[in-house]
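Design a sequence for this backbone.
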C-alpha cells in the first residue's frame, strides 16, 4: 500500500503495445526504414547515365590486366549504376519467366503474413513455435525451395549476365577522366550495415 510520501506507481506498457504493433512488425519496419534510407543515399550517389554511355571514353584494353584495372576503377565510380543494371537484369529475367515470378511472389506473401499480418503465436501440429524458430524455419524453407526449383538457376543466370555486361563496360571505358576519393568509394547500397544497429535488431528476432 502506497504511503503519502510515495508517488503512485504508474503501469508500464511495452512500446507499440497500445498501437497493436507486435515485436516482429516493429523489427520489420525498423529494418525497412534503415534500408530505405540506405537506398535513397545510394541513389543520390548515382552517376548520370549519359556519362556512363559516353562513347568518346570507350577504347579496347591492351591486356587482360588492364581490363581488370579499368573494371575495378569504373566499379568504384559507377557502382550504383552497375547495381541498378544487375537489378534490371534480374527483374527482366523474372518477367520473362512468370512461373518463377509467381513463386517468388508466393514466398513474399508468406513472409508478409508471418511478419506483418500475423499477431498471434504460430501454432502447428499442436506445438507453439517461437519467433526465432519461425524465422529460421522460413529462411531454410526459402533457401531450399529457391535452389530446388529453377528459380535459383534463373536468378544466378541473370546475375551472371548482368555482371558480364558491367564488366564489359568497365573494361572498355577508359577511367582517366574519373575522380573518386577513397572515402566515397567505401560507400554503397550496403554501407548502413557497418553500423551496429542492424545486428542488434536481428538479434531480437
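Sequence:
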Amino acid at each position: 500500500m502506497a504511503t503519502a510520501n510515495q508517488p503512485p506507481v504508474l503501469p508500464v506498457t511495452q512500446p507499440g503495445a497500445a498501437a497493436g504493433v507486435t515485436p516482429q512488425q516493429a523489427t520489420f519496419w525498423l529494418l525497412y526504414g534503415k534500408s530505405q534510407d540506405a537506398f535513397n543515399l545510394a541513389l543520390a550517389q548515382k552517376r548520370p547515365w549519359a556519362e556512363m554511355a559516353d562513347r568518346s571514353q570507350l577504347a579496347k584494353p591492351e591486356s587482360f590486366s588492364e581490363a581488370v584495372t579499368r573494371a575495378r576503377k569504373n566499379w568504384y565510380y559507377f557502382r550504383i549504376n552497375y547495381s541498378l543494371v544487375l537489378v534490371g537484369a534480374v527483374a527482366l529475367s523474372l518477367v520473362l519467366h512468370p512461373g518463377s515470378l509467381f513463386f517468388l511472389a508466393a514466398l513474399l506473401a508468406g513472409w508478409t503474413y508471418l511478419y506483418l499480418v500475423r499477431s498471434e503465436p504460430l501454432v502447428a501440429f499442436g506445438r507453439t513455435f517461437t519467433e526465432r524458430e519461425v524465422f529460421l524455419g522460413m529462411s531454410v524453407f526459402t533457401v531450399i525451395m529457391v535452389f530446388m526449383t529453377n528459380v535459383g538457376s534463373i536468378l544466378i543466370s541473370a546475375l551472371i549476365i548482368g555482371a558480364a555486361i558491367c564488366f564489359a563496360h568497365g573494361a572498355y571505358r577508359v577511367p582517366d577522366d574519373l575522380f573518386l576519393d577513397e572515402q566515397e568509394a567505401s560507400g554503397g547500397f550496403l554501407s548502413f550495415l557497418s553500423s551496429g544497429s542492424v545486428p542488434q535488431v536481428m538479434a531480437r528476432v
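The first strand starts at residue 122 and ends at 124.
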